[in-house]
Amino acid sequence: MRASRLIIAIAAASASAALAQSQSAGTSALKGHDSNAPVDVSADRIEVQDRADRAIFAGNVHVRQNELALDTQRLTVAYSNNGGVQIQRLDAAGGVVVTSPSEKAKGNFGIYDLNRKLITLIGDVQLTRGPNQIFGQRLTIDLDSGRAVVDGGPPGVNQSGGRVTGHFTVPKRGGN
After folding, report:
1. Sign of torsion, CA 38 85 4 47?
2. How many structural domains are present in the chain?
3. How far is residue 25's CA from residue 6's CA, in Å, rounded to a whole number?
4. Is residue 120 one of the residues assigned to a domain?
5. Residues in the chain, pLDDT under 50
6. What is the pLDDT of residues 124-152, one digit of tens each?
7. What CATH number corresponds to the domain at position 136?
């Protein structure tokens, strides 16, 4: 009985904490999060490792809250169990994709530190907003401020020599 309650608590809390919703068009769409919105989670499998205080969602993991979604192949949820389940950290691996109505972020791995309210994507990072794209090796999003930072990697990591690259459209002016 304890394990089934734990699975439900972890699924709801981890999905709610991992997802964020846009509050302003001038900031990242991942600023802030609505933890009161309903959460839908699906995966091919869940394994609870109660003695290690973690749960693993595996296989086509999909989490959705309002208009924001997280997709990955594997999600490890680290929690403390002091009088109730408290999620500490989420680790996503295997083609991590976070989407909102205005942005899409991709990476090989994702980390969400709930205590610090930071989401980090690592490895072959791509951030897309409309036709604009930024590429790098690490994306860090501060959910409190909405600040997003993209870092390159060491030289030779990618085609751009480890540097951050971007492609931005310019508004077209009318006239002659």
Report:
1. positive
2. 1
3. 37
4. yes
5. 1-27, 33, 35-36
6. 999 999 999 999 999 998 877 878 899 99
7. 2.60.450.10
